Amino acid sequence: MNTEPGSVASHPRSGSSRSQAWWSALLALLALCLYWRAPLLGFAGDDALVLYHLKRLGGIVRPSAFFTALDFFSFYRPLGFLSFASDAALWSLRPGGFHLTNVLLHAVNGMLVFALARRLMVPWAAALAAALFVAHTSNQEAVYWISARFDLLSTLFVLATLLLATRDRPVWVAVSLVTFALALLSKEAALAAPIMVGAYEVFVRRRGPMRVVTVLALMLAVIAGYSVLRSAVGGLDPTGGASRLPKAVMLMAGVGTMMALSLLGWERLLAAAGRIRRAPAFILAVLFLVGAILVCLIPGAGAPLREKLSFAGFASFYLLSPVVAPSPPPFFLDPATPVYWVGGLAVALTAAGLIFFSRRRLVADGTWLFVLVATAGALLPVSSLTEGQRYLYLSSVGISLGAAKLVSDNIGRWRQVAATVIGLVLAVSAWQIQVKGSDWAWATGMLSRGATLVNADLPACNEGDVVFLVAPVGIRGVYSHFYHQTFSQDGGCEPGSYQAVARMVRADQPIEVEWVSPRTLVVRAPRYRGNFVLSRDLRAFTIEQRSQRHARFETPLGTVTSRPDGEAQEVMLELAPGVDFQHARFYYFAQGEVRRVPPNRTRAITPQ
């Protein structure tokens, strides 16, 4: 067994299995206490599509259907749907059971984080790392939202893969390949697992190149098999499409880097890097800063770099801040801000500086390198996605490990300072989880009440045309949008059609709706907050209406005109001659609820 500094054998392993069982039980209790509200919530957002597919494919009695006949946004996640089908068989379609499963999965993941941290730290520090993960505020979306089950399952199997693949006996490596396959069948983010395993083997265990290359090659073979299954059985692109090719290249480069470091000797390479003087490093940093700014300012060519930098700002904020519901949000989290990528650039330079000034410590203690590489590897598969905090679920493992190690590595007054900061973070995190729980409770209740309101107006199932003049999307930072299938998820009926003219995003506000002629409706936002998004085809909502914006275009329902009026914004819908508005039901969202449009009492006059 390797006993060099930083290897597994050099870390303290005091504490009986009984004490570890007690720590695990306390972590599970912490998860249940933090998310006590979850089993009381209803369905939200994509949950309607999950239920639709469960009904369409026959549920748990036809498990093979989830491998062969499922098209879920071109994702291949059959294992996640099997877990939903199991919930449906156990709980029927009662949402509380689905939510309880999410909380239990989160608790199990906390125990796995503890098992991983226990290899790297003393028991109390390992428990702290697991507690930070369980209470991490960005994880609230993955736990509270049923549809984020994919992230919970994928992380569970990735952690199991990491724990198994880094054991000595070949049988455990073989079992880890099975758990890795299960992780991939849960969500594509599991592609980060080879980088995490490689980082642990190289930096923590300091294993030789034969072991590292063999294990990673076997994992790459599993990825190849998954791609074949995804294509031949699932009928999807084996690579996920051209848009995901850059991520695939970065992931393969990460795996290749782990192999190369094991072959070349990472200690020598980092030691050589440690001899770089400050002056050349400063010059390189300035050149990078100037070059990055110039590239980002190029309208077309700078888009890829701006995307990555904006993700860096998004990920850093939600991974490091215990506050996940700031008001107003930081400027670098708003894509409409021209310099939204500046936050990510600042993060990149800060991270590079910290690594440079800590390079000798990184060489001495490989655990820090494992934490850094594992966190970066977990972010690679999601490095263009900023619309949800659930994408950070796996990477929060590395952040939690790093925070706990920072406390355990310091002594005396510095440890007291670090422990105080971590204590405050845990307290704020617990509070923020309750705040977001209230937001999810509002969203699920609003969707249920809105569906009930619409169902009361339908002549029969699959009949009637439902039009939302203003539909909610992302209000309060949670998934508060309607689908066609939303109206049937609580035992109601789907309408004949469902369309939305405008979306209200980010923030709620009062609006007024009235008929100004027999075929013309006007939506007026008196104190407009720049948060309407329109669509030409009523499907792809891409026309953002910031303050003082004009727009006029044709839609399947008729002509839409958007125009400012002082501090207000008006959106007018002139129904096309072929639209039978007498049989349509019109609604709008405002001030937290779905409302009926007032009756059309205008006289039969020709619109001006």
Radius of gyration, rounded?
26 Å
The strand order across the widest sheet is 6-5-2-1-10-11
How many alpha or pi helices? 20
Q: Based on DSSP secondary structure assignment, what is the total number of beta strands?
A: 11
Parts with pLDDT < 50 across at least 5 consecutive residues: 1-14
Structural class: alpha+beta
Keywords:
single chain, 608 residues, five-stranded antiparallel sheet, 20 helices, 11 strands, globular
Summarize the structure in words.
The chain is α+β, with helices and mostly antiparallel strands and 608 residues long. It folds into two domains: 8-437, no CATH class; 445-596, no CATH class. It is 53% helix and 11% strand. It is built from 20 helices and eleven strands. Strands 6-5-2-1-10-11 form a six-stranded mixed β-sheet, with helices on one face. A hairpin with a 2-residue loop joins strand 3 (512-517) and strand 4. The longest helix has 46 residues, at 412-457. It is globular, with a radius of gyration of 26 Å. Residues 1-14 have low confidence and may be disordered.
